[in-house]
What we know:
Residues 12-190 form the Pyruvate/ketoisovalerate oxidoreductase catalytic domain. The protein has helices spanning 16-29, 77-83, 103-106, 116-123, 132-138, 145-156, 162-172, 175-189, and strands at 4-11, 33-40, 48-56, 69-74, 87-96, 126-130. By secondary structure, it is of the alpha/beta class.
Amino acid sequence: MENKRVIIAGVGGQGILLASDLLSDALMKAGFDVKKSEVHGMSQRGGDVVSHIVFGEKVYSPLISFNEADVILAFEKIESLRNIDFLKDDGIMIINSTSILPLPVAAGLMDYPEDPIGEVKKFVKNTYVVDAEKIAKELGNRKVMNVVLLGFLAKNLKDIEKRYWEESLKERLPEKIFEVNLQAFNRGYNLE
């Protein structure tokens, strides 16, 4: 099997690191060699956070270069644009429809792009948009947006049986929030 590459990108506080840990756990349970790298850009202050995950039979480096990612999971719309150059021509872009204003935009120093998803769709044929915030609110916990998105990613990563994801959730999450996260995962997994 050729190595596969996934980028998870978002804003500090969205649960990118937990999502990348859950993905890595599920991949290891499925028997893959996994390497992960994270970049925290002022993540405590709403800056961008990016995680690179490479998996396969044997992986030597977690770093993903331009035009190498099989999948980009963007937890925020601008992050899809910021990372688009990493995606392969036939790659999959999964975008959360949520907007989180970067500090320069919130301070009025810059403008938020008018239609980031429309811009991505001009270049990426396999673009999927998920309203994870709506689903999380329906479940009564906005913090599970990341797991909704992970569920949708899981459906698109055919290499990992669903039970490995569920085991990872159970092992990694405290018991008191496991059930709502499992519901969030399943809602994302069952999206069309």
